Structure formats: structure tokens, C-alpha cells
Amino acid sequence: MTTLEGLEASGHLVRIHVPLDGGEQVWRRLFGTPDFVKWLDEDLPQLVTTVVGGEISPFEQIDARFHEYVIGEHIQDDRRFKGLSWTPEYHVWEFKTLDIRVFGWAPSRDCFICAFGDMKDRIELMNAYGRYIAQTVYVRDNLPLDPPKFVASKDYDDVLSNAK
């Protein structure tokens, strides 16, 4: 078993760095699996918004959401960051934008591991929420992370603190 830092050093996890503006500091940590980071770097930039009149690309949407997360802004639960309540025992959370859903979990307060991302419309069309939840749990269970591997709560304040 190992820590997040050990998993990062071994290549099991990749720290997701978000560009900060002057005066901003990292408040929360964000990691991704290597497969997620590959999707983030290669697939996400190619996606096009499906929102009628949408001017912000899916890449820009995720960049903004991750920026909010990292600097410790309050993230409106249910609208932008949500514990998936229909499977509460799995403690899988999702980042939400107009076009994208990112599935993962909180191994500790103010830390999130991203496992999968996809277009919201595709997930809904394929009825794939259950599949992504199951895959996220599988990845988490097979990651050699010291226990506890996740925060066993659906309470925002147990998973996130706010810088402001």
C-alpha cells in the first residue's frame, strides 16, 4: 500500500496542474489516472459543445471547473460537483459542466482523483452512469492506496473545504 504521493511517483496517478492567476494559491489537490489524463490531453480538446449557442468549448468548461476546485472556491453542489446519490454506498462523485461529466472520488478532504470523463449527452444516450460508477469503483479498489481509499460521506463539507 502507498500514499497519493507514492502513487504519483510510481506513475499510478498524475497530478493535474491548473494555471493560476497572480495571487492565487493551490487550496485543493487534483489527480487523475494515466488513462484519464490521456483523455484530458488528447480527446477533450477535440470535443465540441452540444449546447445551442454555446460559446465555451468542453475543454474550456473543464479548465474553469478544475480551476474553481483547485483554488478552493465554493462549488455549488448538485450543479457543478455532485455525489452520485443513487449509489451512495460507492461514494463516487462527478464534476459537471454543460457538456462534460468527470467521475472520480475523494480519497481525503480537499483532494480528488479523476478516473473517467465523457460527454454528458453520450452518457445519457448510452445510459452509462452505472457503467462509469462501476468502473470508477473498480479503479479505486485496484489502486494500491493506503486505506481509507475514499471519504465515506456524501456531505459537501466532509469532502471539500472552501478557501473563502
Q: How far do the termini sit from each other?
A: 34 Å
Shape: globular
Number of strands: 6
How many structural units, i.e. domains?
1
Percent in strands: 15-25%
Give me the side-by-side strand order of the main sheet: 1-2-6-5-4-3
Give the low-pLDDT segments: none
Measured as a percent range, the helix fraction is: 25-40%
Number of helices: 6
Average pLDDT reading: 92
String of helices and strands: HEEHHEEEEHHH
Q: How does the helix and strand content classify structurally?
A: alpha+beta
How would you characterize the largest beta sheet? 6 strands, mixed
Radius of gyration: 15 Å
Describe the SSE topology.
Elements: H1 4-10, E1 14-15, E2 29-32, H2 34-43, H3 58-71, E3 81-83, E4 93-96, E5 100-108, E6 111-119, H4 120-125, H5 129-142, H6 156-159
Parallel strand pairs: 2-6
Antiparallel strand pairs: 1-2, 3-4, 4-5, 5-6
